[in-house]
Amino acid sequence: MGMNIKSEKAQRLARQLAEATGQSMTAAVEQALEAELTRLKTNDDYAIRKARIKEILRRSGPTPAGATSDHSDLYDDDGLPA
C-alpha cells in the first residue's frame, strides 16, 4: 500500500520530526500518527467518563440545603481529630 503526500508542509514537518528523533521519515510519521490516535482515544474516554459523572450527579438530585464540605468541627485547633 502506498501513500504519496503532496503537501510541502507535511513533508517538511515529517523531515524535521525524523531529524529530531533520529528515525526515518516513515517511522517518525507512523509514531506521530499513533500518538495522535492514542491522544484522541484518551480524550474520548475522558469525555465519556465526564458525561457519565454529570448524568449521575443530575439524577442524584439537588444538594440538600445546608450541606457543606466544611468538616472543621471534626478537628481541634492543631488540625488533629477531635
Architecture overview:
The protein has a domain at 10-59. It starts with 7 loop residues before the first helix and ends in a 23-residue tail after the last helix. The model has no long low-confidence stretch (mean pLDDT 91). The protein is built from 2 helices and no strands. The relative contact order is 0.06. The protein is mainly α. Helix 1 (8-21) crosses helix 2.
Protein topology:
Blueprint: H1 8-21, H2 25-59
Helix pairs in contact: 1-2
**What is the count of DSSP helices, taking H or I runs of 4+ residues?**
2
Instruction: State the secondary-structure class.
Output: mainly alpha
Order of helices and strands: HH
The radius of gyration over CA amounts to 26 Å
Spans of at least 5 consecutive residues whose pLDDT stays below 50 are: none
Hey, roughly how much beta strand do the residues contain? under 5%
Rounded mean pLDDT score: 91
* CA-based shape: elongated
The CA-CA distance between the termini, in Å, is 71 Å
